[in-house]
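Intended use. Records like the one below are meant for learning the mapping from a protein sequence to its folded structure. Do not use them to infer anything beyond what is encoded.
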Amino acid sequence: MRAMRDQSSSDWPFMKMHGLGNDFVVVDTRVSDVSVTEALVRALADRHRGVGFDQLAVISDGADLTITFYNADGSQSAACGNATRCIAAREMGQSGKTTLDITITGRGALSAVQQPDGTTAVNMGRPVLDWQSIPLAQDVDIGALPIDGAPVATGMGNPHCTFFVADVEAIDLAARGPTIEHHPLFPERTNVQFAQVIGPDHIRMRVWERGTGITLASGSSSCATAVAAARLGLTGRKVRIDLDGGTLHIDWRDDGVWMAGPTAHVFDGVLTRAFLDNL
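Structure written out for the chain above:
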């Protein structure tokens, strides 16, 4: 399967970004004619023969901008909070705006704000708290799923399964993550979080993302974990979440779940004709 491209250009430009080590390749179709295929996504995701990323983000026109996300295995993702923050930070930096309206394919309209301390905040929308929309395969208590450990299910565009444990460092994430990702209760697979409550406003969390694997951070997972902890009465609605790659601040408000943290635009590059011709 070959990727389609603008024949007037020999190369495709891209950007490499990350939020707390959760890394992304970003392609802007407003400046380059890019058609994304599963073969292209998988080739780009290869950290040895491609560029390497946790998710691919494709920007197109709509509102201030529209973003579509893909996992490293080529499947589409409905949300990616850290990538959204990274792209919003760059867009606001170039335009001089301090707020931005964003359409996320599969999630809808979101808003971003550049904060005085230099971090970027995104409203990831209201959590999904009914079993059919998360989605789950059957009607069960989403606050205590019938899975060993009684995890919590939450929808943030993507489905999430959150385990609260006594010692998150003791969890074999590489072994537990894929088993839960493919659990039959989740017909569209799920992101998996293991979280340890440090205090009423502080959580330590590790993440397995569906279609990607272990990541240093995950924005939507952080939002889902904050919502789950608040619903169980383990924390308040405003928490600090420490991930393997750094810290995010989550605030579950009436208008949605706000997430704030640092962003990084690492470099710009081009995908060469030789690379694209070999897909």
